[in-house]
């Protein structure tokens, strides 16, 4: 029977206290945003210091947010980018990872080095803009924020490592039965690496959801702006005018402060809600894709 000494107990309690403080320091900024979003604008403007509960529970900020047509158009554009972009990302990543996981591919090492090179170096913002605007002709098109980043080198390497861990005997048996590469990829490889695919869906989804810089460069029409670009305008440019038409001028400044926090909540909650559905795949998928069997 293991008996803990007094020093071990003190060390454990010390760890509990330190980790609890670190957790609180990480969690409190998010709680603060939620508390302010649900606070009464009048009481929040009169308050100074930390918040531990909403000040006078109010939904006026969320009403103003949802009355803003730019928020709804931003949601529609972001959901379109997710619905179209993620399947393209996964399909292209599957093809690239399958090719790199094959044994005996000619010039495999130079090709792999060229692919790894793109993880650390890019053509730059101006050449990228010229490529999208002039060569591809995708300026002011939502495809401009999908196609240039259709494959993530990091994600492809994770999936390639997962595919490399599949026993070669499965592929050899399929080839004896007359299967071609597409059958091997979609009927054998794909089901076996589904935990990793689920993780990549999460990675690509978060990337699309949080992306705003590419949209700022390539999209100049407001009706094409994704949600994060609308959020940037509200937070950085302090543009909260739309949705406040029925609010008195004297109250607009007060409610504008809480609207900024409400927009953060509205833009963050959907992607947070996705985690529980993919959590069971997360650790397994990352480990399969990170450690070659």
Give the tags.
293 residues; mainly alpha; MetI-like fold; disordered C terminus
State the distance separating the first and last CA atoms.
37 Å
Oligomer: single chain
**What structural class do you assign from the helix and strand content?**
mainly alpha
What's the CATH first level? Mainly Alpha
Note the beta-strand portion: under 5%
Please give the count of helices.
Answer: 13
Overall pLDDT metric = 81
Helix content: over 70%
Low-confidence segments, ≥5 residues, pLDDT <50? 245-250, 288-293
Biggest sheet features: none
Q: What is the total tally of β strands?
A: 0
Radius of gyration: 25 Å
Number of separate structural domains: 1
Q: H/E series, N to C? A: HHHHHHHHHHHHH
The CATH homologous superfamily is named MetI-like
Overall CATH architecture = Orthogonal Bundle
Global shape: globular
